[in-house]
Amino acid sequence: MAEQKNEQPVDINEQIQVRKTKLQTLQENGKDPFTIMKYDVSNHTLEIKDNFEALEGKTVTIAGRLMAKRVMGKASFCNVQDLKGNIQLYVARDNVGEDCYADFKKFDLGDIVGVQGEVFKTQKGEISIHATEVKLLSKSLQILPEKYHGLKDTDMRYRQRYVDLIVNTEVKETFIKRSQIIKEVRTFLDGREYIEVETPILVPNAGGAAAKPFTTYYNALDEDVHLRISLELYLKRLIVGGLERVYEIGRVFRNEGLSVRHNPEFTLLELYQAYTDYYGMMDLVEDLFRTVSKNVLGTTTISYEGVEIDLAKPFERITILDAVKKYANVDFSTINSDEEAKAIAKEHHIAFENRHKKGDILNLFFEAFVEEQLVQPTFVMDHPVDISPLAKRKPSDPEYTERFELFVTKRELANAFSELNDPIDQRGRFEAQEALKAAGDEEANSIDEDFLNALAYGMPPTGGLGIGIDRLVMLLTDSAAIRDVLLFPTMKTKD
C-alpha cells in the first residue's frame, strides 16, 4: 500500500505543530479523542486472517495504529496494526458517512483508531475490512520513522523502545517470545513441584556470586544496603527451613560494564532442590532447555547466527581440567603450586594478578582458550575451589568442586553446584573471600553470619542452579546482543 505523501518531511517540528493544530480543532469541535474511555474490540487482525472463511461477510471491530493511508476521492485504503499483526481497511464515504469520512481524511500515520466493518477479500485476494465506522481513539503528536527505512539507529531503538516496537515487528515478536519462554520455565518447574518464592532485593550483605554490588543508603535503618547480586543465599535458607524445592525468577544487579553479553541489571532464575546433586541439576537443565524450546518454538533444533544448535542430543560433559588440556594443551593436574601456575601463565601470555591462585589461573586459561570453542551445549564440570566458594568439594579431589557451567554458542547460560552445606568449611571459604576483598578484589564475597547460622541448623544435600534468563532468550530468539532482549536496557543518560 502506498505511503501517505509528505508524512516524513524535512521540517519535523512544523509537522508536529500541524498535528497539534488538528488536535486543537478536534477539541474545539467537541471531538477530543483523549476523552474516549474505551472501545469494544471483537478480534485481532491475525485472528481475522486466520479465520477468514468463518468471518467473511461478518461484522468485526478492531483497534490499532494507523500505519499507512491512501486517499482516493470518495474512497480510501489504509492499514491498521495491532498486537497480532496488520490488516487493510477499505473506507468509503457512502459507508461511513460524510462527516466521518471528512474526519478520516485528516487522520495522521500513528493515530490510534477503532474500526467496525465487514470482512471481505479484495479482487487482488487481500483479506480486508470494509469499514462502516472509523473512530479516532488517540491522536499521535509525533512523527513515526519513515516506513521503508524504519528505525535503524540502535541507540535510538534502545532509548525509545516504544517506537522500536511500533515500526519493527520482529522486535515485538522477540518480546512476545520472551514472555512465552518465562511462562514455560515456570510451567516446567511448577510441574515438578517447585515452589516459586520471593526474596529480598535490598540486602545488608550481597553474596552468592563474584560481582561488585550497587550500594545505597536506607534512611529508615540509618545504614548502607546493597542491591542483590544473586538469589542464592536466601533461597538456601529456605531449603534449611524445609522447603525442599524452591525457585525464583527475579532481577539481580551487578555493578559491572556493558557489553553484548552483560547488562548491570538482568533476570536470573535460581532454583534449589534438596537431596540431589549437580548431576541431578544437569539432567534438569537438559530437560528444561528441550521442553521450553519445543513448547515455544515447536522444535529442539534451533539456528543461532547461522549455526544449527541441537538441543535434543545429550549435552557434552567435560571437566575444566580436560577442557584446558584439550584446547590450550596445558595439563593443570601436573601443576602443584600457585607459583607454577603463574609461570605457565606468563609463558602463554595470560595476564593475572598477584592475588590469583592456581584455581584462578586455570579459569583464566579456560576463558582465553576454551570458551570460544563451546558452540554446542556443553557442561564444563569440576571447577577449582578457589573460584567456587559456595560449592561442595569433590570427595575424590578436594581441590575441585562439584560444579558445572553450561555453555552454548560460546556463552555461559547456567551455573550449578552440589551446594556446600558444611558450615565450618563455608566459614573458611568466606574468610578466604574476605582476605581477597581486603587485598582489593571488589567482587569477593563477605562473611554472611546469618547464612552461616542457617547452615549450622543443618541443610540437606542440595543441588542448586542459576540460569541467565536473558541469555536463554537470546539463544531461543537468535538475538546477537543482550540489549535486544531487554525492553529497556541500561543506557548512559543523554545530556
Helix/strand-derived category reads alpha+beta
What are the segments in which pLDDT stays under 50 over at least 5 consecutive residues? 2-9
- Main β-sheet description: 8 strands, mixed
Distance between the termini: 40 Å
- Overall, the morphology is elongated
Percent helix among the residues? 25-40%
Radius of gyration: 29 Å
| Overall tally of structural domains | 2
What's the multimeric state?
single chain
Strand order of the largest sheet: 6-10-11-20-19-18-15-14
CATH architecture of the largest domain: 2-Layer Sandwich
Helical stretch count?
Answer: 16
Structure description:
- 36% of the residues are buried.
- Helices cover 34% and strands 25% of the residues.
- It has helices spanning 12-28, 45-50, 52-55, 93-96, 98-105, 154-159, 161-167, 169-190, 232-240, 278-297, 320-328, 338-347, 358-370, 423-438, 449-456, 469-477, and strands spanning 59-72, 75-81, 86-92, 112-121, 127-138, 195-196, 202-203, 215-218, 223-227, 245-253, 265-274, 301-304, 307-310, 316-319, 378-381, 393-394, 397-401, 403-408, 411-418, 462-468.
- The protein has an eight-stranded mixed sheet with strand order 6-10-11-20-19-18-15-14, sandwiched between helices. A five-stranded mixed β-barrel has the order 1-2-3-5-4. Strands 7-9-8 form a three-stranded antiparallel sheet, with no helix packed on it.
